[in-house]
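Appendix B, Record 12. Input sequence as logged:
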Amino acid sequence: MRRSYKFLMRPTRKQQQALRAMLADHCDLYNAALQERRDAYNQPSKTSVRYGDQSAQLKDIRTTDPDGQQRWSFSSQQATLRRLNKAFEAFFQRVRNGGKPGYPRFKGKGHFDTVVFPKDGDGCWWDSTPDDTQVRVRLQGVGHVPVHQHRPVEGRVKTISITRQAARWFVVLSCDDILAEPLPETGRAAGIDMGVEHFLTTSHGEHFANPRHAQRASGELAEAQRELEAFPKRVRMSLRTKKHRNASRKVTKLHAKVRRQRLDHHHKTALAVVRAYDAIAHEDLNISGMTSAAKPQPDPERPGQFLPNGAAAKSGLNRSILDAGWGHFLAILADKAERAGRRVIPVDARNTSRTCGPCGHVTAANRISQAEFVCQRCGHTANADVNAAGNIATRAGLVLSDAA
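Logged structural output:
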């Protein structure tokens, strides 16, 4: 199995300048390759430019730019071109499926934050046998950068990524050949229902609180954003001053803090669930569809006018769902379960909250409120989230037992 490790880097000021230059040059390469594809398609012949064509040009690009592109790893530049190629493949896939195309966009230097090294030892070297003083990662064009390795690395390092988050730099190792570490069997299974009032509810009636990290930080974030937006547009777009940079850095730091808090909560909750149950069932959620904006409803009696569509309530629900981070949590849960030898079973999400567990009657009227479920046929009452979690477990074919 594969696993990723993320460690904080502690570069010197000079190394930070080199890291920023590396990101900037890879961003320029990405944007130039995107422009070439756009120009080729806009020709009357509608020429297609593929990854192989652009990768073959790298040698000439590096030769003509010795102080820029030539400083960095050839394989990392190929990885940047593959990143663009994946963006185009996803674009064409959406077109074929009839979805919203979303043509690949140019990257601003402040939004291009990751460089990938496809192989350890090719432009980037992880120090797997450090001395007693400091673990380091060696980067071509940057040097030996100290790393805060807070836990041991298992398996074989396959790829290395350098990423910037706010003012911090991280190294991400993707390792394979990692052995599973099965936990002792508990003899228990459960369905889990993801929610907003409660972050997670099990079919055994256990609730995990929703910390609402973004909502708790919304006041401070709004104030920091107002301070940033107070600068004139010419300052925000080009003539960045020291005060503007500080205001921008403050907003970025607050978002990074919320992201770290959410990630910490996901890991702790997933670990608690994996330790408690041998088999875990959850809804196979279409989160992007659930968080889409409410569609306008034209008024048939007044052309050009629209009926109320609950857009304000829907946008509030969307924020709550995205703040909870269900998709990220379920990915972490699957990863921890795989290593612990547990089973994770996704099931169809349709009508899990409207179905009566004992009799199977399905109607929206069963859901009296956010917390209350009353079956209109048999009169069964239960907590709505617990009832939904029980339906999820039933669909997965799990036998609910509290036997140790």
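Residues 3-176 form one domain.
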